[in-house]
C-alpha cells in the first residue's frame, strides 16, 4: 500500500484504482477483525486486564509486607521484587499500621475489579452455552477458548 501511495500520480489510472480498492478492503477487513478481538463491554469490561493483574500483585505485595512486619519470615528481596513489579517505592519503610492501611485500600480496589470480572465470566458462560446449542461441542472447551481469547 505504501508503494502504491509513493508511486501514485494524480489522477490514478484504472489499474491503480482497482489495486487501491482491493488493498483498502483488506486493510478494512483486518482492522475489523482486530477490533472484534479487542472488544470491550460496559458490563464488566474484561475478565482479565492489566489493571486487574496490577491490583492483584499490589495486594500480594502488601500481604508480604504485613507478614514480614508480623513474623519476619519473608525476605526483603522478595518484597523488593514485587514492589518493583507494581512500582511501589520502598514498601519496607511502612510500619504495621501504614502497611495495613495500604492493604485495605488496594484490597478494596481489587475486590471491585474482581466483582466486574465475575460478571464478565458469567457473560462468557452465556456465549459458550449459546455456541453449544448452535454448533455443538463441549461447553468447557468452548469456555476455555473464549477465556483464552479474552486474555490475548
Number of strands: 0
Helix/strand structural class: mainly alpha
Question: Can you give the helix content as a percent range?
Answer: over 70%
What's the tally of helices?
A: 6
Task: Sketch the major β-sheet.
Answer: none
Strand coverage percent: under 5%
Task: Report on the architecture of this protein.
This protein is an all-alpha fold and 152 residues long. The protein has a domain at 50-151. The protein has helices at residues 2-7, 14-37, 50-71, 76-86, 96-135, 139-151. The chain is elongated, with a radius of gyration of 25 Å. 12% of the residues are buried. The model is unreliable at 41-47 (pLDDT under 50).
What distinguishing features does this structure have?
single chain; 152 residues; mainly alpha; 76% helix
Secondary-structure topology with pairs:
Elements lengths: L1 H6 L6 H24 L12 H22 L4 H11 L9 H40 L3 H13 L1
Question: In short, what is this structure?
Answer:
The protein is mostly helical. It has helices spanning 2-7, 14-37, 50-71, 76-86, 96-135, 139-151.
